[in-house]
Amino acid sequence: MPSVKQVQVTFDCIEPERVGRFWCEVLGYVVTPLEGFGTWDDFQHSMPPEEQGSWFACVDPSGVGPRLYFQRVPEGKVAKNRVHLDVRVAYDLEGEERLAALEAECARLVPLGARRERLLYDGTDACMVMQDIEGNEFCLT
Fold first, then answer.
1. Rounded Cα distance, 116 and 31, in Å
2. Looking at the domain assignment, is residue 80 inside a domain?
3. Is the pLDDT at 100 greater than 90, yes or no?
4. How many domains does the chain divide into?
């Protein structure tokens, strides 16, 4: 059996482009290039009105990380995520250094619309639980 070559992470959301652009800022991703269109707006305006804004995608410019796909759904988030992203900003640090790195990244993301939920810290290891602009949980680790 052949192995999986690529993984895409899909988000259900109300405003795909807004959520997608948030994650571009968090991860340093870029808008997926669309063949035949100069900009994302050019592509959107080429679609029928009822399909405009129905999805958005972004990619890791280095080609290492998975593609992120955001699709519009009619309902908002109503329960805890069953899957979440860990944004690994301090995975190689411990103690006070780890806390400082997590706090610095939190301070960068809050003005983008992220919300800090809680810090989990046992004296060595730490994780900061946060939410994106539509309430999807993610962790800074």
1. 26
2. no
3. yes
4. 2
